[in-house]
Each structure stands twice: as structure tokens, then as C-alpha cells.
Amino acid sequence: MAKKRGSKQLILEYFLGNLGKVLISRDIQKASGGAVEWARRVRELRNEDGYQILSHKDRADLKPNQYLLETIDRVPAFAREISTETRAWVLERNGYTCQMCGAAAGDPDPLGGNRTVRLTMGHIIDKSKGGDDTPQNLRAVCTNCNQGLQNTALPKPVRIHLLSQIRRATIPDQIATLEWLLKKFGLETTEMLPKK
Ligand SMILES: [Zn+2]
Q1: Domains annotated on the chain, with CATH
Q2: 3-state DSSP assignment of residue 22
Q3: Are 78 and 50 in contact (CB under 8 A)?
Q4: Which terminus of the chain is more solvent-facing, meaning fewer CB atoms within 10 Å of its CB: N or C?
């Protein structure tokens, strides 16, 4: 037991000493004192201690052997309840968009009526299959998808199709798309956009 705690602490110190730097598996293992189960310790730091250690599952620009800790801020990792902070963090990460059908919070409900789309927390790996309530296993899902009300096994749009749809959209819709993307990525344009 004492040995396990030791390697986890060593890994944590290595991440904290290299905030914002991409670290690779081999070096993490070395920093852990050569622990065979270093990857399990990294998972514990994420899922049990709430350190926001990112991997290729979180960020497309990371390779499978790369890990990154950017902040000492810890996500509250309550096992049972999804905290407000965790919800907010997941919603922001997912751009306030249903990760199954793509509807955004506040969009008109595609099933009709006067309702708007509401987002809730969905589990990537279902709890019945051992998934937990950690931020890494949560995603924004609209209430329709969460209740299985729509055919939600939609594949991600293929880029060439997506771009062709945007190219033939109206200018106001293209501008709306641009504005949404800029907002999503925290950017602003100083260019004058045509009036909608
Ligand atoms: Zn949805």
C-alpha cells in the first residue's frame, strides 16, 4: 500500500512540476519510480483526486502516449452526485451542445412544441457497465437523446459533407455558423461581417 501511494505522489509531483507541458508515458513511469501500474495511478489522480490530466481521449492533438496537466485546479470528483462545478465544466467542454445529435441548449426542440433544447449529463460508459460520474465519463446530452426519444446513433458528420452544407447555406446562416465557431473557440473577429 505504502508503495502505491508513493508512486502516485511521485507522478503528481511530476505533473505539478511540469504544468502546461506535454509529458510522455515513459517519463511518467520513470518519475513514478518505475511503477508497473503507473497508468492506473494516473487514472486515479484524474478520477479520484480530480486532477484534470488530459490524454488523447480528451484532446485530439495529444498522442496516445501523451498526457498534459494545465492547471492545479481540481474538478470536484464526487462519486455519487454530479456537482454543479462538474456539470458546468462538462457543458463548457462540450460547447453547450448535445454530443449525440448536435442540438445546442436553447435551440428549438426538434421534436416540436414550444420547448427549447435542454442539456443534461450523459454517461459515455453507462453506469450499468461500470462507468462513473467523473467528468471524463460525462458528456452533454439533450433530454431527448438522454431519454432515447430520437435516433441518436448518428455518426459524426463527414467534413466534406459538412463543408458542402455550409457552402450552400444562406449568408445569414454562414455568419451564424462563423459566430458560433468563434464563440466556441473563445475568439472574436474584428472584421466587419455583412449584416444578417
Ligand atoms: Zn441530442
Answers
A1: 2-74 (1.10.10), 84-146 (no CATH), 155-196 (no CATH)
A2: strand
A3: no
A4: N
Give tens-digit pLDDT for 103-153: 998 888 877 777 888 898 888 888 778 888 888 999 999 988 887 765 545
Q: Are 141 and 122 in contact (CB under 8 A)?
A: yes
User: What spacing in Å lies between the alpha carbon of 132 and ligand 1's midpoint?
Assistant: 21
**How confident is the model at residue 1, as a pLDDT?**
45
CA of 158 to the centre of ligand 1 (A): 18
- Is residue 59 scored above 90 in pLDDT? no
State in Å: Cα 136 to ligand 1 middle.
Answer: 19
State in Å: Cα 100 to ligand 1 middle.
Answer: 5
- CB 90 within 8 Å of CB 56: no
C-alpha cell at 163: 463543408
The CA-CA-CA angle for residues 157, 94, 83, to 5°, reads: 150
Centroid of ligand 1 to alpha carbon of 2 (angstroms): 46
